[in-house]
Amino acid sequence: AGGEESWYSHTVVQNVLAKGEPVLSMDAVRDSRFQGSQSLRLLHTRSILCVPMRTRQRNLGVIYIDSLTTAGIFTPADKDVLKIIADLSAAALERAQYFSHLIQSEKMAALGTLVAGVAHELNNPLSCITGFAELLYRKSEDPDSKEMAGMIHSEAGRCGSLIRELLNLARRDKMTLNTLNPAMVIQKTIPLMQLDYNKDSVELVVDVAPQLPMVWGNNDQLTQVLLNLLANARLACKGRPGARVTVRAATHEDQVTIQVVDNGPGIPQENLRKIFDPFFTTRGTGEGTGLGLSIVQRIVTEHHGNIEAHNNASGGATFTVNLPLQGAPIPT
Question: Fewest CB within a 10 Å sphere: which of 61, 112, 239, 312?
Fold first, then answer.
């Protein structure tokens, strides 16, 4: 959280998040640790108690309480109690996230078995349709027949693309992960999208931190993740004044965080929980399959990372991909 209307001390919260240790200040006005804090002066904060909500893998947030009028209201005993509450809360949140991912994985596995069979059955007749349409197009001398053959070939190609997406969704092969430079993946992906962005008058901004560390990953699969997120962001901004998409990458704890930020209309609150579900789409008929973000989530999960989406306070949406660093342990 943050912004001009924040009611808490950024200095204290950042200190707790960085060190992972609780902070108790019985009189913040005289506390030498926070003499340079502008927010404490503006808020006239006296007593502060802030503890991290941390699991073995990462920080999930903090619990922050303060008093603006009374010094010494919190004690070391209060800090111990709040630390227990924070640890229990963090464990509960981590467990809830785990079960959510487990349910999603089971849904994807069942769906994958179904669509793999259907897709393979469709592939053979579709190949025949495509082949005969191409043959008819080449041999036909009648302009109307030639046009219809071209339409058949084009629509069959669209069906083929959908089948490839279904097979990609159903793929259960274990992905090979190597160490790679995420900055290089971003650098190679941007030119692939630049033409579409220019055509739709959407500004594409790249903000990558210097000397990003290596991550565990698969170059082709991560490229697909970025292409999908960038395509969605472009469509969200298309036609809006000052349309802009920003790609950010930086290191956070033991992860590299890649964000795709747009200034479009944002995601309706009721859809935030459904956008990664297979076949869920808000686009019109024929404009989207609803598979893109499902595939993106599967790829990121196979990278032992996670992906999240949220709306920006200033408008638009942000998709955040977290990938483990090369030196971080990879779950088996």
Answer: 239
For the entire predicted model, the pTM comes to: 0.53
How does strand 203-208 pair with strand 244-252? parallel
Q: Check: CB of residue 45 under 8 Å from CB of residue 65.
A: no
Q: Are 213 and 256 in contact (CB under 8 A)?
A: yes
- For residue 243, which amino acid is it? A
CA-nearest of 159, 243, 250, 170 to 211 is 250
CA distance 310 to 272: 7
CB 228 within 8 A of CB 297: no
| Residue 296, both tokens | 């993106």
